[in-house]
């Protein structure tokens, strides 16, 4: 049973990786696929901790850091949209600040 769940979680994670690789034009799509990968890792971690009867305090720390990562990504998105007017990566010039 655990091997089937692990295969499902790895499949979900690699679907998130593929969506991250193929959505490189928009920053918002990249952030959404990163959050999907983080949620897949959280579900895998939660089931792993429950299956082996470990304490779930680490899952709370993982959720706190993933929320901080999401907030940081959204703040970067808002600052880029305010400064450039869109979230296309191809329209940015990374040589100038």
From TrEMBL:
Q: Could you identify this protein by its name?
A: NADH-ubiquinone oxidoreductase chain 4L
Catalyzed reactions: a ubiquinone + NADH + 5 H(+)(in) = a ubiquinol + NAD(+) + 4 H(+)(out)
Organism from which the protein derives:
Polypedilum vanderplanki (Sleeping chironomid midge)
- Gene name on record? ND4L
- Protein function: Core subunit of the mitochondrial membrane respiratory chain NADH dehydrogenase (Complex I) that is believed to belong to the minimal assembly required for catalysis. Complex I functions in the transfer of electrons from NADH to the respiratory chain. The immediate electron acceptor for the enzyme is believed to be ubiquinone.
InterPro entries in UniProt: NADH_UbQ_OxRdtase_chain4L/K, NUOK/Mnh_C1-like
Q: Does the keyword Transferase apply?
A: no
Quote the EC number. 7.1.1.2
**Molecular function GO labels:** NADH dehydrogenase (ubiquinone) activity; oxidoreductase activity, acting on NAD(P)H
């Amino acid at each position: 049973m655990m091997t089937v769940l692990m295969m499902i979680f790895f499949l979900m994670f690699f679907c998130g990786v593929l969506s991250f690789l193929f959505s490189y034009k928009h920053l918002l799509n990249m952030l959404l696929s990163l959050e999907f990968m983080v949620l897949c890792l959280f579900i895998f971690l939660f089931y792993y901790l429950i299956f082996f009867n470990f304490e779930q305090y680490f899952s709370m720390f993982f959720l706190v850091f993933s929320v901080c990562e999401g907030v940081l990504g959204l703040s970067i998105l808002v600052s880029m949209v305010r400064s450039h007017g869109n979230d296309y990566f191809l329209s940015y010039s990374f040589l100038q600040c």
